Amino acid sequence: MQIVHSIAELRHTLRHADRAVFVPTMGNLHAGHLSLLAKGKPLGDALVASIFVNRLQFLPHEDFDQYPRTFEADCAALKQAGCDVLFAPREADLYPEPQTFKLTPDPALAGLLEGQFRPGFFTGVCTVVMKLFMAVFAGKTRGVAVFGKKDYQQLMVVRSMTRQFALLIDIVAGEIARADDGLALSSRNRYLSEAERVEALQLSLALRALARDALAAAHVLPERLPALEAAAQSQLAARGWQPDYLSVRRRTDLLPPQAGDGAGNLVALGAARLGSTRLIDNLEI
Ligand code: PAF
Fold it and tell me: How confident is the model at residue 166 (pLDDT cuts 50, 70, 90)?
């Protein structure tokens, strides 16, 4: 595996690749990231991962400084996963000057859910993802990028950005990897105390219960959803969580379901803080 830090080195290294497959990450790799690499490996002739903790997508009070950085262990895991090239830019490689041009996604999608509670987050994500795409895929006729469904809304925002800018990049979705008890794997799980780690599972259980209640009739009854969502949030709050949202949305646009929407085109999404750790999860239904 070749490790490169600058965009020029990356482009030089990939000059002969016909179809690069790219898995962007912020490092601290776990089985979820590795499943994205495994999914991407057969889809092209050069498997590229990036590790970059992107300051632009963190709000001032969030965990940018605290975000786990485990570069040596990540390199070992990437080698094991068959990664050909690791792009690990320093901040000055990706942001050599203040990033005054930014990519602002459509608020109709990016202003919902995560966007409502983390304003600016998707602008930070889109700006860095576009820069990473330009670095990896410049001069290539076609490429593939793999994003996990764990960040469901991020996947949708990146898909719509790729479509609207007519990028020749196929966006492939990877399933959520879960621990044995069902907790969605996340780098932020390592912030949890032992007791919180046990409690953390309740978020996915709450989404499961919400999904079940929402589908109790063959089709969702949209007028009943707000009460079900509020009840799911109250139940988590009663256990000591601070929920941001638990909501059932349409998979196509993340808007509330309409009459007739039902199983097969919905997703239950949730974000809630347990102690000082903010967890997200979702379940396609
Ligand atoms: O999902 C992530 O880890 C990040 O948002 C990404 C896509 C690497 C951009 O910084």
Answer: very high
